[in-house]
User: What shape does this take?
Amino acid sequence: MIFELKLLITDLFFAFSIFTFLFFIGSVFIKKEFLKILDEEASHFIAFIGILYAAVFFTETLINLNSDQEGRVTFQDLILGEYWPTFWIEPLVWILMTQLLRFKKIRRNVFLRLIFSLAFIVTIENLISFYSLFNRDYLPSSWRIKSSLVIYPSNLFLEILMKLFLLILLTGIFYVVKKKLNDWKTSKIKSQ
Assistant: This one.
């Protein structure tokens, strides 16, 4: 369950990166207020997803540390051993980047947003997989770099479209829920 949730969150980060590239390219040609609002809400949604990602990451870490003796020793070697940066850097950077999107100056800075997008797309796992493709002793069983959830089609273009659609759909739901909560909060304040 936690693994699937973490994969879904990672897919939302990837979709946000693609959305950011498309938004900045589209905003050069299309000057619609709707696009700016969609970008603002997608940034707020990703900041919320970053908090959820932090909770899932630390919960998964605690669960693995409380597993059986052999699993615990292996996991402790992973998080504290020789290659500890590969475990800690990416999640902590992702959490930091998503929370920095709360600030309007960072949200509107094209250069920073593009760097954030590249950091969401080019993961340590992808770099290691890409590097191992050029190892002469490596014979891949498939040429896909990253496995994703079963809900996506096998076509890469359709997979990216579905991830974008999922991001926009969840951003819309997030916007509606946030608006209803704000309306409820103001009606509570006015009634007092």
Q: What stands out?
A: The first helix runs from residue 2 to 29.
